[in-house]
Design a protein that fits this description.
Blueprint (H helix, E strand, L loop, with lengths): L5 E2 L2 E2 L14 E2 L4 E3 L23 H8 L3 H5 L3 H14 L1 H16 L4 E5 L15 H4 E5 L11 E3 L7 E3 L6 H5 L33 H8 L15 H26 L3 E4 H9 L10 E2 L10 H18 L4 E6 L5 H8 L9 H20 L7 E10 L5 E9 L8 H7 L11 H10 L15 E2 L2 E2 L12 E2 L5 E2 L9 E3 L2 E3 L9 H7 L3 E5 L4 H6 L2 H4 L25 H5 L2 E2 L1 H8 L5 E4 L1 E5 L8 E4 L5 H5 L2 H4 L2 H11 L15 E4 L4 E4 L5 E5 L8 H9 L8 H4 L1 E2 L2 E2 L3 H7 L7 H10 L5 H14 L5 H12 L3 H9 L8 H18 L24 H6 L4 H14 L2 H15 L4 E6 L6 H13 L4 E6 L2 H4 L6 E2 H5 L18 H8 E7 L6 H15 L15 E6 L13 H7 L10 E5 L12 H19 L26 H9 L10 H5 L8 H14 L6 E4 L12 H6 ...
Parallel strand pairs: 23-27, 30-34, 30-35, 31-32, 31-33, 33-34
Antiparallel strand pairs: 1-4, 2-3, 3-21, 4-8, 5-6, 5-7, 9-10, 9-24, 11-13, 11-20, 12-13, 12-22, 14-15, 16-17, 18-19, 25-26, 28-29, 36-37, 38-39, 39-40
């Protein structure tokens, strides 16, 4: 009512539905907006306009501005009038706006503007109350040209809102005039950190936003704080204040790290020698660093830190969940003295919970109530209504582990205590540790999802504690007749949450104690890494201005959109409490090759200055080598063990002996496909006391040329004799070309430890056809070639195959590289391959396609081609269900552009779908999209790389089956294309996908992104139409089913039309009648199999009739498939069908399960991960230990092997040969 500004965040109103205490909850990016001084003609005055317009009826106008009639009835006009008079008399901001009112009334000037001044001229600590002249300036006539960076110019009249800068001193006073009744300044940038350094040029000079708010939000006896007594307004102020903190941090990232780039020192030196002076053309963009608390990289790093603790201390033994209790006596006593409720003071809630949490950790670690604790990890979460709770992992010492059911019973109870003998304990369990009521007795309970309890209560009765076959505890829950009545519903032992009596009685809160099942607790604790923050179904907003111009999209907004901020979470962060805790701490250890340490620099930096920086020459890795040479005790430690005895000093960039404390080390993770980097990391986990890079490559006084050879000498790599035997076996029936393809596939998969060894032993098999091919190519039947020439030609063939797959023999340093005079081999092979299409053939194909397009398809084709030919760019989505001809349009567009010598990049979300596209690839392989993208991911495409040049040259990008991919994949490509194409035109940075024309296609009725254990809202929010990209997307629809046109029989046509309509109704969600996402659907009887016997036998006979006869027609198997819901059903069907093939003998292949030797330096891991344990692992994405096959058995690939040959995830083949090491198969 009295605010000058409005808030820009989205307030969650649904959280307050019901009778619970009110909570202020905000999502999205928050900001404050201010309108013009006077309302637009015909509009009612709002916010600041109430201080100027029609002030004779100001009190009535303020009451009218409250739209909610229920709230309006509770307002008192006399109180409103009193508050207005108070503000008129004391508030300098109000006086500033009254000054405008008086000026307009005095001269009727229509061009009066008010400048809100962003900087003060006096010391913020000395003068707390600014004067009117310091706060605002009246501008009559033209705008003031001296508008400062933080200044805000409020115009006389207009419809546009202006955003107040968070660092403007009046930012808080304008939004909360009743909390700042004098119009006093909020945060100012010039508040000195201390008196001693106010004039210093070194160290910190000013107070941060967070520190300022933390100071203002503390009780002080000599200060009467309006803010702390504001109840619900205090909740809003806390959330609003925290958004200032976060906004200032992200503003720094946007203004600095948006230009911040990183590249290896060696790469910069080479660029400098080549004459490159512009730093912006080097390196990859950094979007959001791991130091930003709450970001995706932050969570990933902390997850890896937890796993480092796990490697050192063993798997966790106990998992505790500690929830804040707002009825703790400390909180009740404090609030009752001030006549407040718990929701009115989130600061007290957080501070008391933090003290309780610290006390709990002290009990666990120092007081050892469960025994010796080696390590503790916890993370803080906030419930839907905002209360904090902690998930705690305890790693016990070997002597204090709980190895038997009796040990578990000693510390964990899941039963109702006897009320007569222990009434206090009974009441504590009743108050804090009973789940429910839920289920049939309370179907609307919060835990109920699809009519089932999401926490799986009630549990089963259990006479004794035991561990099930999956390693999960089944606690003792005896059927002893004890009950606790809650909401008139009796609850027995099946509803008791496991707990520890001592902790429950001491802390008087919900404190769940669970015995752990190895690594699952680590994954749950850092669930953000896999699932992401809690999300809701997205809402869409207008993204164009009234004149039709495009509004810029702020990518950092994605971070804000991913979660809600409640008062307790905001307060927790303002007070500086950690949301993730580890003890012992983990030092993250980086490593690099000589002169390849990462250097961080701005676009504007001169590379000569960057290269000459002292910090560039002394990295953490180099300092480790120096310390090994300097300290004798260092020679007994690996790099990962180093932080246990030494401390890294960032300022002096050196390691010094540790005097106190303890820390673990974690060497930065590198995937196996990274070549020498991976091998170097393997060595670092074992090598002790290395003083140089050469020392790292030395084993038994022999210095090896590569880290891979060093790993082999250390026994870290397996022998490749199995691959040699496989090539030898295959040479008797496979062609030389097929063996070269096999060798390339093994190179791409990084399965061979020493590929040059396999090449030396098997090159003759892979080159068996070289001489014949050269004789035929040169029409020289008497041609002879030396052994070296034959090898060179075979290597050329392999290099050609690798380059078509985006790799080169140069990526495998141990492999020989061919001598080649053909220059096209060394140019951009990606562009070269895309330009090899026959123009005449493409024109002929295009003409035939154009004749077959229907009206809808022609309109789609025309719209897209106009965008391409006009170089307008644009994002299109061709939406149509299966059979409407989307793939036919891709074929037509590709032929049209390729006939003119242009490049089209056709990609699909899956390998199988990409096979249907002309020249198709999977999107991940084409654009190097991260396997697990986050909201801040970018593609691994460097500036000036061959792939970047290919993208620049391309005219069109087609992405089929887009709905099944996570929106982060599209957003990662968008960021990368903006970065790559800004080299062509700087304005491309502000265009979707850098101004490139991109066409998506698919059907939202089909499979959406798979979100593991995600809700319906999670899945919806992960789709492309929930991305910011969708606002720029033009949707083109196809509705005519082309598959129905090819049917000759009227009866077949009618049956298929009926089936197609039923399928469409399923996709549209109308098959089950009106519903909210869940409905019972009746499946037509004519497509159901009726069976009174074995259902597997029934479906096999129906799908594969006469399978026992093993039909030889490939189409018999190609046109049939059985979909199974679980892995167990898959195994049952496979076993049944394999047994039907009685004409062939079966052969069973076993996996080779072992631990990477470089990571098995902990005894507990070696003991846990026995071959027997590894052989029993059965999980999605992990192949079974045993695979039984017969000749003639149909199989399906589960990974992309070679896209150019159609060997993708989902490709179906039939087994033709069973060898000892190699299988022969034909694609169906």
């Amino acid at each position: 009512m009295f605010s000058f500004t409005s808030m820009g965040g989205r307030v969650d109103q649904t959280i307050n539905i019901g009778g619970s205490p009110p909570v202020f909850k905000l999502s999205g990016q928050n900001y404050h907006l201010i309108g013009s001084l006077l309302p637009v003609e015909g509009n009612v005055p709002k916010f600041a306009q109430l201080y100027i317009y029609d002030t004779q009826h100001e009190d009535a106008n303020r009451l009218t501005s409250v739209g909610d009639e229920k709230r309006k009835k509770k307002l008192h006009a006399d109180i409103v009038s009193t508050l207005r008079q108070m503000l008129d008399q004391h508030n300098v901001l109000v006086k500033s706006f009254r000054m405008v009112r008086d000026k307009i009334a005095e001269c009727g000037h229509s061009n009066v503007n008010l400048k809100l001044i962003g900087r003060r001229s006096r010391d913020a600590r000395t003068y707390n109350l600014p004067t009117v002249s310091e706060v605002a300036a009246l501008i009559v006539g033209d705008f003031d040209e001296s508008l400062g960076q933080r200044d805000i110019m409020v115009e006389t009249q207009g419809g546009a809102l202006k955003r107040i800068n968070e660092l403007n001193p009046a930012y808080l006073g304008l939004q909360y005039p009743l909390l700042f009744p004098y119009g006093e300044d909020g945060y100012r940038e010039d508040i000195s950190f201390s008196e001693s350094n106010s004039k210093s040029t070194k160290g910190r000079r000013s107070v941060s936003v967070r520190e300022f708010l933390a100071y203002r939000l503390h009780d002080r006896g000599a200060e009467n704080s309006f803010i702390l007594k504001a109840r619900r307004l205090f909740q809003q102020f806390v959330v609003d204040g925290y958004t200032m903190v976060e906004s200032s941090r992200l503003t720094y990232i946007r203004l600095n790290q948006k230009q911040l780039r990183c590249a290896m020192y060696k790469g910069l030196s080479e660029a400098l020698l080549s004459g490159e002076r512009d730093a912006s053309t080097q390196g990859k963009r950094i979007v959001l660093p791991p130091t930003f608390v709450g970001g995706a990289r932050y969570m990933v790093q902390n997850y890896q830190d937890a796993m480092a603790i796990c490697r050192w201390a063993g798997y966790p033994d106990l998992f505790l969940t500690f929830t804040c209790n707002p009825k703790w006596p400390e909180i009740v006593r404090f609030l009752s003295e001030r006549n407040l409720n718990p929701e009115d003071r989130p600061d007290i809630i957080c501070r008391v919970f933090k003290m309780k949490l610290d006390g709990l950790i002290k009990d666990l670690r120092q007081n050892k109530i469960f025994g010796d604790v080696r390590a503790v990890v916890y993370t803080i979460e906030f419930q839907k209504r905002g209360l904090p709770h902690a998930h705690i992992l305890l790693f016990m010492g070997n002597a204090d582990k709980f190895t038997s059911p009796a040990d578990i019973d000693r510390i964990i109870s899941a039963e109702i205590p006897d009320e007569s003998s222990d009434p206090d304990y009974f009441n504590a369990v009743k108050m804090h540790m009973m789940h429910g009521p839920c289920g049939r007795d309370a179907k609307n309970a919060p835990c109920m999802v699809q009519s089932k309890c999401s926490k799986h209560f009630p549990k089963n009765f259990n006479a004794h504690t035991n561990i099930d076959e999956d390693g999960y505890p089944k606690y003792m829950r005896r059927d002893d007749g004890k009950e606790i009545v809650k909401n008139t519903i009796p609850l027995d032992n099946r509803h008791v949450v496991p707990h520890n009596r001592y902790l429950l009685m001491k802390y008087g809160a919900h404190l769940n104690v669970e015995w752990c099942n190895q690594s699952r607790s680590i994954k749950y604790l850092f669930k953000y890494v896999n699932k992401g923050n809690d999300r809701v179904t997205a809402a869409f907003y207008e993204t164009t201005n009234k004149d039709g111009s495009e509004k810029p999209v702020d990518e950092i907004k994605l971070y804000y959109d991913c979660r809600y901020v409640s008062p307790c979470e905001a307060m927790w962060r303002i007070l500086g409490f950690e949301i993730q805790y580890k003890n012992p701490s983990v030092e993250r250890l980086s490593f690099h090759f000589p002169d390849e340490q990462y250097v961080y620099f701005d676009d504007e930096d001169a590379m000569t200055d960057v290269v000459q920086r002292e910090s560039v020459k002394q990295s953490m890795f180099l300092a480790w080598m120096k310390a090994n040479d300097q300290y004798a005790e260092a020679k007994n430690l690996t790099y990962a063990e180093f932080p246990q005895k030494f401390v890294w000093k960032p300022k002096t960039r050196e390691f010094v002996p540790r005097k106190r404390g303890f820390a673990l080390g974690r060497v930065a993770y590198v995937p196996p496909g990274s070549g020498e980097s991976y091998y170097l990391r393997c060595i670092l986990n074992l090598k002790r006391g290395a003083t140089s890079f050469a020392d790292l490559r030395t084993v038994d006084e022999v210095c090896y040329d590569t880290y891979r050879d060093t790993c082999y000498a250390l026994g870290l790599l397996d022998d490749d004799r199995e691959y040699v035997e496989g090539f030898t076996e295959s040479s008797f029936w496979a062609t030389a070309w097929g063996l070269r393809v096999l060798f390339v596939i093994l190179l791409l998969a990084d399965t061979m430890s020493r590929p040059e060894y396999v090449w030396d032993k098997c090159w003759n098999y892979m080159s068996d056809d070289i001489l014949h091919r050269q004789r035929r190519a040169l029409l020289h039947p008497e041609l002879t070639l030396t052994e070296e020439e034959i090898k060179n030609y075979a290597l050329l063939e392999i290099e050609t195959m690798l380059r078509t797959r985006g790799k080169s023999l140069r990526d495998y340093p141990s492999m020989p590289f061919p001598n080649c005079s053909n220059a096209t081999m060394f140019q951009n092979r990606l562009i070269y391959d895309e330009l090899q299409y026959d123009h005449a053939e493409m024109r002929e194909q295009h003409d035939k396609c154009m004749e077959s397009l229907n009206e809808q398809q022609s309109e789609v084709y025309k719209t897209i081609m106009e965008s391409i030919e006009g170089n307008n760019g644009g994002v299109f989505f061709v939406y149509g269900y299966g059979g409407t001809g989307k793939t036919f349009i891709w074929k037509t567009l590709s032929a049209a552009l390729r006939s003119k010598g242009e490049i089209v990049l056709n990609v699909a979300s899956s390998g199988i779908a990409s096979l249907l596209l002309p020249g198709g690839r999977t999107a991940h392989s084409r654009f190097a999209i991260p396997i697990n993208p986050t909201e801040h991911s970018t593609c691994n495409i460097k500036q000036s790389s061959p792939l970047a040049q290919l993208i620049i040259r391309s005219k069109l990008i087609v992405w089929d089956e887009a709905p099944m991919m996570h929106k982060y994949c599209f957003e990662a490509l968008d960021r990368s294309l903006r970065d790559i194409l800004r080299v062509v035109d700087p304005l491309n940075t502000n265009k979707p996908f850098g101004g490139k024309t991109i066409v998506f296609g698919g059907d939202f009725r089909q499979i959406l992104p798979v979100i593991t254990k995600g809700t319906r809202q999670d899945i919806v929010n992960a789709t492309i139409n929930s991305s910011y990209i969708w606002q720029d997307c033009i949707v083109l629809r196809l509705t005519k089913n082309m598959r129905l046109q090819s049917l000759s029989s009227d009866r077949d046509y009618a049956d298929l039309v009926e089936f197609a309509e039923w399928i469409a109704s399923l996709g549209d969600g109308t098959a089950g009648g009106q519903n909210d996402g869940c409905a019972d659907i009746k499946i037509p009887s004519d497509i159901l199999l009726q069976s009174d016997e074995d259902p597997i036998a029934t479906i096999v006979r129906s799908t594969y009739p006469d399978f026992e006869a093993m039909p030889t027609d490939p189409s018999f198997l190609k046109e049939r498939a059985i979909l199974a819901p679980t892995l167990d059903v898959v195994d049952s069907i496979n076993e049944y069908m394999t047994a039907l093939n009685v004409t062939e003998e079966s052969r069973t292949y076993l996996s080779s399960d072992s631990i990477c030797k470089s990571d098995s330096n902990s005894d507990f891991l070696a003991d846990l991960h026995t071959p027997e344990f590894l052989n029993k692992i059965r999980a999605s994405g992990v192949p079974n230990h045993e695979l039984t096959l017969k000749v003639g058995t149909p199989v399906m690939l589960l990974r992309n092997i070679d896209h150019s040959m159609g060997l993708c995830n989902g490709t179906r083949l039939i087994i033709t040969r069973l060898g000892n090491h190699v299988l022969g198969a034909t694609i169906l």
